[in-house]
Amino acid sequence: MEQWTFPPAYDPDTLPDPNSRYWFPVRETMPAADRERAILGRLKEVTRYAWDHAPFYRRKWEEAGFHPDQLRSLEDFESRVPVVTKKDLRDAQTRVPPFGDYVCVPGREIFHIHGTSGTTGRPTAFGIGRRDWDTIANNHARILWSMGIRPGDTVFIAAIFSLYMGSWGTLAGTERLRARSFPFGAGAPGMTARAAMWLDSMKPTAFYGTPSFALHLAEVAAAEGYDPRAFGLKTMFFSGEPGASVPGVRDRIAAAYGARVIDCGSMAEMTPFMNVSGTAETDGMLCWQDVIYTEVCDPTTFHRVPYGQRGTPVYTHLERTSQPMIRLVSGDLTLWEDGPNPCGRTYPRLPQGIFGRIDDMFTIRGENVYPSEVDAVMNKLDGYGGEHRIVISRDGAMDELLIRIEASTGRAAGGPASLGRLGDDAARSLQKMLGLRAKVEVVAPGTFPRTDFKARRVVDDRDVFRELNARLSDASR
Question: Of 144, 186, 247, 410, which has the highest C-beta tally within 10 A?
Fold first, then answer.
């Protein structure tokens, strides 16, 4: 397998033939069974490395009765190696600050420091070694290659440059690919209109950001007199939130810009986060198993579920030496399948991407609902204005669901009858998708603020629900 060693040692000057579909043809197209045998060998190396260098893993595995010498099959790995949770990582960093006792390199070898925002508790610090940063760049370059991006192309990076790993990982991969990087950023007042101006001026080949920001940018660009399709983008790839694999959202972005839309991204802790990513020919996300070994598991037992079933991804680094994650539970929900991929790669696939976090799921009258499912319905509606809010009531014996939906400017100009039809269409589509009735309130265009980052559309507030429900009841009288 091309340049697959542990610790990794990639040739920084390797570039495939520009006409090749693959960066590493053998690794990407080999029979899955052969790859799994190679992965097992790598897991033996990785677990031995962590046992020798990380007190966190040695202690956790001793408590579970596991030793790396016992690893003889992938089934052993699944059944004998305990999972790691984000709480485990936070506790480790509280106990041994700043990087926890799962860091495996001396502090002087840390090259990049990133982390979580810490808005809901102690932030988690990511200490990434120089060797690992080079590996991340190589892996991301390889995956960007699969998207059709080539040396000399310009990649417009419209994501916040702060603790957020998405922007930095994309920049590293773009530079390694020998493409031109345009690290525009996001988040400052007035920046969205300036992004439209720069996109129109520079005509980049590719764009990276969140789906929410791409939709917001298309609205702002049109208001500023630009046609987003004239930007000339060929490839738009996204992470940070569900959307790029949600048909309604994906189709809206593709229609607005005339570009190919690709979904990617797992977790910041797992960087190279593009370890799950679509390609130029394959929708959804491939699990790039020789970068990060991915299991889709039952969220209670953490045993792998069969292909064709839903579960939570559990990730294991195969090339990280600084803060290796070994069976880290994502807490997300997805469905995986195994079969021929249009791009010819022999990886398992998440055909619908990642639905969202299991914690984001809410239950309404016995039905499990994910915000991404509501997003999909809204984005397919004729007359949808681009934003909505999901209001949940936790009051009384039964939870209730109310959707506030912006009308488009054209639909709003049609008057009350036109808005009424939009509300009725939304209610019918929601019932068909979710299997339950929801109340719908249609509001004026521009009611809800747009975002330069991840959208937050769920409101879990009894008082808000009562107020809106009363308004709907009065309107129906």
Answer: 144
The SS3 of residue 262 is: strand
Instruction: Note the pLDDT tens digit of each residue in 108-154.
Output: 999 999 998 654 557 899 999 999 999 999 999 999 999 999 999 99
- Cα atoms in the Cβ-side hemisphere of radius 13 Å centred on 40: 16
Q: Are the C-beta atoms of residues 342 and 353 closer than 8 Å to each other?
A: no
Long-range own/partner contacts, residues 286-289 (CB < 8 A, 24 or more apart): 286/341, 286/343, 286/345, 286/347, 286/348, 286/349, 286/350, 287/336, 287/347, 287/348, 287/349, 287/350, 288/139, 288/143, 288/347, 289/35, 289/36, 289/39, 289/347, 289/348
- For residue 287, what pLDDT band results from cuts at 50, 70 and 90? very high
The average pLDDT across 446-467 equals 72
41-62 residues labelled b (16+ CB within 10 A) or e (exposed):
ebbbebbebbbebbebbbebbe
Residue from 368, 355, 367 nearest 313 by CA:
355
What single-letter DSSP state applies at residue 208? E
Contact between residue 443 and residue 405 where contact means Cβ atoms under 8 Å apart: yes
